[in-house]
Every structure is written in C-alpha cells, then in structure tokens.
Amino acid sequence: MNQLSKEFLINVLTRMCPTASKLLGKINVGGSCCNPVAAALLLSLCLGFPRSVATCPPYCLCTSDIISCSGRNLSVLPFDLPGYATRLDLSHNALTVLPVDWISRPFDRLATLVLSRNSISQIEANAFAVMPHLLHLDLSSNQLTVLNSSIFTGLKELKELLLFGNQITQINPGAFSDLHSLQRLYLSGNKLMAFPLGLYWEPGSPRNLTFLDLSYNKLSVVPVQNLLSLTQQDGIYLQENPLVCDCALLALLEYWMWKQYRPLVDFRDEYPCRDDSGPGSECSQQVVLDMPLEAQTYQVEPGKWLRVPCPGFASPAQGGLVVFWVTPKTVVNSSTNDPDDHIIVFPNGTLEIRSAVMEDSGMYGCVTARRRHYDPSESLEVSIVVGNLSSTSTSGLAHRSGAEHFNTAFTTLASCVVSIILVLLYLYLTPCRCRESRGGGTRGCGGRAIILCSDPREVESGQRRSNGKRVAFLEPQTEDSDIGVPKTPAMNLGHVTTEGILKNGSRTVGQALIDPAHVA
C-alpha cells in the first residue's frame, strides 16, 4: 500500500469514527505509518456498527433499550445519544429550554421520555416532533408558566402527560390540539385560575380524555353546567382548590355524591360545602320538600308539549338558586333561557319540552342545591317517553315475546312432525313384515326377524307372556320350508312379549293377559 492510499484510508477512518484517530495514533509501522491490516479491521468495525448504536456517553447508563442520564447536572444534551432507546430518562438535570433542535437525532422508537425535576421554563413549538411514537411524557416539577400552542405537535399517540408541580398559570388555545390519543393529564400543583375547557371543546382536542387532575390549583369558580355534562368521565379531580361554595357548586357536589362520583367520594373532606360550611339562606331547604324522591315516568305524544316538575322542588327559585336539568343530549338551566329553545327550565325548576320528538326520550336529572343527604333508593331522575307509553315501553318486550312465541310454536310443530315420522317408522319400517299363511304360521320372516313383527296367535299357547316389551332374535330359517311343519323356536321365548303392536295398531280381541308379577 503506497503512502497516498494510506493517508486516504486514515482520513476516511477519522471522518467515519471519531475515535479512529486515537486508535490509529497507537498503530504504526516504522513509527510513521499505520498498519494496513489494523486499519482495514478498524474500517470494518466502523462500517458494521453505526454511530447511533455503537456508543453510549460516559456519563449515561445504557442497558438494552433504556438510556438513563439522570442526575448528571446536564444543561444541554450530549450530541452522541444512541437513537435506539424506547425509554430516555433525563430527570434531575439542569435543562432550562427545549428548542426545536434540543435533541440531536430522531427517536423513532422512543415510548417514554422523562424530563422531570429540571428547570425547564420554555418549550418551543415542535420540540417533540422527532419522537412521534411517544406514549408517556413526564414534565413534572419544572418551571413552566405558560403552555403555548403547538408545543406538543406531533405527539398524536401520547396517552399520558405529567405536568404537575410547575408554575402554570395560563394554557393558550391549541396547546393540546395534537394530542388526539391523550387519556390522562396531570395538572395538579400549578397556579391555574380558570378551568381548561379547551381540553374538551377545542378542535383537535383529546377525544379520549378520561382522567384530569386539577387539584391544588387556584380555581375559585368552575363551569358547573359543563362539568355536569362531563360527569360520565372517569375522573375530574378538583380537591384542595379555593372554590367558592355557592348554590351552583353545592348542586354539583350533591349530584356527584348521589352518583357516587369517585373523585368526590375519595376526597370528600378536601372539598368545600361540607356540613359545617357552605352558602347561606339562598340555598335554604325551604324550597325543597322533605320527602323521599321517587323515580317517575312521563309520557308525551310527538309534537306535543310536556312539563315536568323537578323532583322534590316545592317553590320558585330564590336569589342565586339555579336549577339544572341534565338531558340525554345537553344540560340546561333556569338562568339562561331562550324563548326559542326546544327545552327550557322555568325558575320554579319545571322542565318544558316543546314539540317533542322521539329523540327526546330518555332519563332526565334535576340538579339543584337541596341541602340534604340522599338515600340510595331516592332518585333525582325522571324517565320521559315520547310516543305511546305502552307501545314504546313495551315494544322491545312485545318484540321479544313475539319472537319467543314464534320459536315455541315452531319447536312444537317440529317436535310433532318428528314424532309422527318416528311412529310411522316404527309401524311400517320394521325389519320384517310378516305374512299370514293358511296354516296359521308365518311366512317371509327370515333370519333374525324381530318378534314384534309376528302375530300373537303365531306363538305357542304354552309360552308365558309378559306385558314388558322385549325383543328376541330367531335363528335363520329357510323361506321355502314345508308350510305344514311347525317351526320350532331356537330359544325359549318365555320372557318374550306376545303383546306386540299389530299392524292395525290394536290388541288382539279375546287375548288373555297374564299379570307380569306371575311371570317367572
């Protein structure tokens, strides 16, 4: 190998492998040139192990597909992080800003990213776009104050986002617009003063959000009407917020308690409006009847109007008392009525449905501050049926009954047909149909004929009879034997019945029957 080729090989190795120059400096021939064999071996190693998987930073721990650089006081990330990781732990460091290029290469396999307990105060848009398959993102215990729009762009598969323990005071519209798969969001321990309704109503917001932790924030007022429509969600935690205990909040908490809503039941003592606190006379129980609340059903014809009183509500609302009705489609209240609405609520709590349609059928719940504990058997809901009550309520039952009657009739008919076929087979398809001869014997009963084929008169009179139906097989006999010669049975037929079913289906007249008790 000439000098020019050696220098070229050295340059290639140096460019491809950052550590090649160090190794080549120790391998020389005659003190001036590298060993061609060693250089070729080093080149093959560089080609066989890409830089993304070949090295692990000395201050990180790389095991299998997990990379941990936790607790290293890093203010910037190392450039040579391997890209094969499914879990990357960068917690307990000194990161302050996450720009677009804060990470050196795409992490296509990354599923979990831990950035907790840093000093991150700013995240630029598209900062996480290089890890599109991320499922779990932990940004807890940082110094975030504002969540700008598009900071989570590209995280369409993210399911869990931890943001608790920050200083978040504001969530701008579109901050969660790309988190279509988000299921659990932790915002506890921040400084939010407004409920983030954009999580549920903004275009592109999470479709499957079932857990929202807003505890230990600065919320004083919550949108009660919106929260009533979100009660079917698995968990919205609001404990340890300075909530103002007005009549609307009291109504919400009472309704949640009646529904056994888990976030309230588990942290009941950490909510306001307990027995020893709450609003004053504007939520007095004088407006509520002190009587059990029973489930009721109301019926209205399509196109007609229907008025339904609020269960247990006795007099018109006073002061700030608001009555909410949770309908199958929406939530309406007595304070914001539009005369043109299809469903309105009067100040006395009465619900009015105008020009009812079939889609209005369902369960309706009346929510208001009653200042009382509900018995588990009591009901705050009523059932409304649009259409004929009997036909509507029993249509499913009638349909099922008709189907059951049809199935029963069909089964009975099929059973009868099968029974008739079996009887016919029993009567006419026996192995041998005997023919009477002039001498009173049988003719045509070949070998092993069933004795049920024979006439009782063909059996010798000395043979004992029994009412029990038994079958005996005879030895084969020649069909053309002498008719006048009596046939001798090959076995004793004393235990064989002579009471067979004749071809005409009746017992032979004048035939004496012997009591089975006397049969040996």
UniProtKB/TrEMBL annotation:
Gene3D superfamilies: Immunoglobulins, Ribonuclease Inhibitor. It holds the Pfam family LRR_1. PROSITE patterns: IG_LIKE, LRR. The chain crosses the membrane at residues 409-429. InterPro entries: Ig-like_dom (IPR007110), Ig-like_dom_sf (IPR036179), Ig-like_fold (IPR013783), Ig_sub (IPR003599), Leu-rich_rpt (IPR001611), Leu-rich_rpt_typical-subtyp (IPR003591), LRR_dom_sf (IPR032675), LRRNT (IPR000372). This is Ig-like domain-containing protein. The lineage of its organism: Eukaryota, Metazoa, Chordata, Craniata, Vertebrata. The keyword Transmembrane helix applies. The keyword Disulfide bond applies. Residues 292-383 form the Ig-like domain. Keywords: Disulfide bond, Leucine-rich repeat, Membrane, Repeat, Signal, Transmembrane, Transmembrane helix. It comes from the Eukaryota.
